[in-house]
Amino acid sequence: MESIVVQKYGGTSVGNIERIFNVANRVIATKNKGNKVVVVVSAMGDTTDELVEKAKQINPNPSNRELDMLLSTGEQISISLLAMAIQSLGHEAISLTGPQCGILTTSNHKNARIEKINSNRIKKELEENKIVIVAGFQGANENGDITTLGRGGSDTSAVALSVAINANKCEIYTDVDGVYTTDPRLVPTARQISKVSYDEMLELASLGAGVLHPRSVELARKYNMTLIVRSSLSNNPGTEVVEVNAMENTIVSGVALDKNIAKISVIEVPDKPGIAFKIFSALASNNIYFDMIIQNVNRAHVNDITFTVKIDELHEALEVTKKISDEIGAKEVLCDESVVKVSIVGTGIAGSADIASSFFQTLYDLGINIQMISTSEIKISCIINEDNGINALNALHEKFCNNNPIEENKAV
Amino acid sequence: MESIVVQKYGGTSVGNIERIFNVANRVIATKNKGNKVVVVVSAMGDTTDELVEKAKQINPNPSNRELDMLLSTGEQISISLLAMAIQSLGHEAISLTGPQCGILTTSNHKNARIEKINSNRIKKELEENKIVIVAGFQGANENGDITTLGRGGSDTSAVALSVAINANKCEIYTDVDGVYTTDPRLVPTARQISKVSYDEMLELASLGAGVLHPRSVELARKYNMTLIVRSSLSNNPGTEVVEVNAMENTIVSGVALDKNIAKISVIEVPDKPGIAFKIFSALASNNIYFDMIIQNVNRAHVNDITFTVKIDELHEALEVTKKISDEIGAKEVLCDESVVKVSIVGTGIAGSADIASSFFQTLYDLGINIQMISTSEIKISCIINEDNGINALNALHEKFCNNNPIEENKAV
């Protein structure tokens, strides 16, 4: 039986005419192996940024609906050009916008969520033996208004379509060879991982390892869709994201450094029930992501509450927090942008008591002060001063990923 | 009662940010006078040409469907930016693509015809007091595939929408003050006409006077929609296109020069029934426009057939003609690109016997050889050598439009 493969190519992979033909050839090669192929593409190179820039020149606060109308043209240009390239190489191809693919989303413009996919059109075109090229990052709400899916939207489109058409696998093409134990630009000894679990990938993605967007990984995990991260410029097999029981017996899969965070502290919060709730529900209702909450008692009936936010949401987060802070009678709101988060991720973390102590020991040996700690089944994260980030990352990678000393210890 | 005004702005009118704001201000001014306003816009400046160029770099013969997918982004960018501009000036606006406006077309990509408009969405937005901005030039076929309407498509969109929503008038904004007696760049004494009939406008448009596309004028005539041609850069009232009985008593409204034609001759065609039919039905089925057919008998049972085509369709027309020519056993196919068409247009032409002789006399006085002649109720056209074009145009304008000598004659 023919298998169905969904391939997603990012903006750099279709950044110019030569690269568009590179993608066209890869897609055709996959088709020639006897697969039905659906290709999801992003906007070419910097197109999206250029369109946003144009919008800002006209209106510093453009409406989200009109911004979606504008931005969605970026992918529409890529899909038509890729279809033309494939056709010029003698193969049948058809491009479809998000709305044409039946991708129904919420009306939350600029950050819509996929609600349903009516995949009849795609299936019909696949049955007619065409290569189907789909605009990533976009859909339409129930009124037919064009929506975009926000960050990582094209990855999400690819996984959601894979699920909708029951694809055998979803390949995410990018400009690196796969998922690494850590960022190779920061740690020269970083090595590529052949398999990683959804949960680990999720942590690595949300920690700024950056190859895949968490939303797409969550979706793949939910429907158990095989996800493969590969380079569009090499033939490296890449990294397969799989269920945890399909994993090799590694304890720590990766080490991550997230520089794009900031710390907000609300000082001297009256110690009454529901106060923390007020702050975090206000942030949530403004779609601001927060993390790593710490509440420490200073003196009787007064607390400090500290949490981290994404640096590009800091301005908005501060506004919301200050407003609530005034309402609840806190003393002041402080913020610190000079922090980073280092983390280790691995399915074996919860099962090994040594790991946490080994983690803290490594930072202690470097004389690094830990400001905040957060742990989960498969992750340990610390907030430290940004000056220590690279050092900590290298030491943690050396400790957990290169020589696998923990596994050795465990074996003893 | 509030009236509904449809305004169409061409690509140069929205060619940069300053001009987009100029359009935004005009639209708002119209709204502030108590009108409901629908604005139809083309792609900014040279966007369409740039997109075509990009496509050709990838595929010298891109599929029309994919070309439509690509080109339609041009208008989508304009409408979102214009909506943002109007919003930044404090007014409610919403942009809609052709498909979102319910513009249902044939599937003839690159040159689709509007079949039906479901105007519910536009009406709903107008009722909510919004300025509605519509992407001209585009629609969707019954499968939801994006189509474009070909040359003059945005004018056609504007008129068709005006009819669908029962607008009081349709204003076509351009970079000239209205319709002129002839091209002011070629004839310095050309003057703007305040009123012209649909039929005259149709002839002027199809003869290369160029302000309005014939399809839009035909549609306006069919539904008796008041059409106004105005400048987006001045407050000149422009030219109103009206029914013939609303006309002033001018005999000749305009003089036109069409340089974009070429002459094709099929030499020594066997004189059998149905031969001419074969040539012209083949051209028609290839969507090639032809005009000015002459068939002259050379000798017994052999004819020459000569006709004109648009210069940008010459290549295709020659291919089709040569194929048929071989089939029917004609001797050869010749072509001549060094020809132009001069014409006079006016509702009074059929009623005045003097006009034709005066027309030919004018060319004769200049020593110009007439190669082909064609006349209608409201038009006389001649094919002459291109070197004589400007001279002929000026002389005919002087004769018929400036001093109105015919009217004087008539009065005698």
TrEMBL record, chains A, B:
Keyword list, A-Z: Amino-acid biosynthesis, ATP-binding, Diaminopimelate biosynthesis, Kinase, Lysine biosynthesis, Nucleotide-binding, Repeat, Transferase
GO-annotated cellular components: cytosol
Where in the numbering of this chain does the ACT domain appear? 264-347
Which chemical reaction does it catalyze?
L-aspartate + ATP = 4-phospho-L-aspartate + ADP
The record's SUPFAM superfamilies line, in alphabetical order, gives:
ACT-like (SSF55021), Carbamate kinase-like (SSF53633)
Which EC numbers characterise this protein's activity in its record? 2.7.2.4
Which GO BP terms, alphabetically?
Answer: diaminopimelate biosynthetic process; homoserine biosynthetic process; lysine biosynthetic process via diaminopimelate; threonine biosynthetic process
Any one Gene Ontology molecular-function term assigned to this protein's record: aspartate kinase activity
The protein's matches in Gene3D superfamilies, at most eight in alphabetical order, are given as:
Acetylglutamate kinase-like, VC0802-like
Q: Which residues bind substrate?
A: T48, E75
Q: In which pathway does it act?
A: Amino-acid biosynthesis; L-methionine biosynthesis via de novo pathway; L-homoserine from L-aspartate: step 1/3; Amino-acid biosynthesis; L-lysine biosynthesis via DAP pathway; (S)-tetrahydrodipicolinate from L-aspartate: step 1/4; Amino-acid biosynthesis; L-threonine biosynthesis; L-threonine from L-aspartate: step 1/5
Which residues participate in ATP binding? K8, Y9, G10, G11, T174, D175, Y180, R185
Similarity comment: Belongs to the aspartokinase family.
Q: Share what the entry says about its subunit structure, partners included.
A: Tetramer consisting of 2 isoforms Alpha (catalytic and regulation) and of a homodimer of 2 isoforms Beta (regulation).
Give a short account of what the protein does.
Catalyzes the phosphorylation of the beta-carboxyl group of aspartic acid with ATP to yield 4-phospho-L-aspartate, which is involved in the branched biosynthetic pathway leading to the biosynthesis of amino acids threonine, isoleucine and methionine.
What is the name of the protein in this document? Aspartokinase
Classification from the root reads: Bacteria, Bacillati, Bacillota, Tissierellia, Tissierellales
